[in-house]
Amino acid sequence: MVTVRAMTGADIEAVSAIRVTGWRTAYAGIVPRTWLERMTVEEDARERRRRFASAPGGVYDLVAVGARGAVVGWACLGPGPDEEAGTGTRTGELYALYVLPALVGSGVGRALIEAVHARARELGLGRLLLWVLEDNARARRFYERAGYAADGAVQADEYDGVPLPEVRYRLAL
Fold this sequence. Notes:
By secondary structure, this protein is of the alpha+beta class. The chain has helices spanning 12-26, 33-38, 41-53, 108-122, 137-145, and strands at residues 3-6, 60-65, 71-79, 91-99, 127-133, 149-159, 162-172. Strands 1-2-3-4-5-7-6 form a 7-stranded mixed beta sheet. Helix 4 links the parallel strand 4 and strand 5. The chain starts with a strand and ends with a strand. The relative contact order is 0.16.
């Protein structure tokens, strides 16, 4: 059984471990190996502590906790981009969603995405956006099963000089 709750400072190390191992697993063969090898839990935790301490209003970190009390997943939700302003519908963005690689497919991701959707509705958001690497087929299938659809927007982030396209997905709540 998995429960989802608000992240606390005590969860940062576990979240960083999930994020780093998640990147190394999900993006192997997509993101340059040199980029993935440079990622460390310690560095990620330092950055996460900084962000957590100074998080702007409206950013929500959620963690999934397994039956033994260990953090097994993490999601982050916040305000959507300015370009969505003026549409008459408040838009949020799912910034991140990671699950321990050994638990992918076990329902942890589903519990997190459902909690994100519930929180977004509580905040009065009418739509959510997210970006996913174009070549991350598994994540794209996950989001599509959760009701998201690619909307045609594409951007590229660069990793060790390699531009990698991301596609934007959206969901009406």
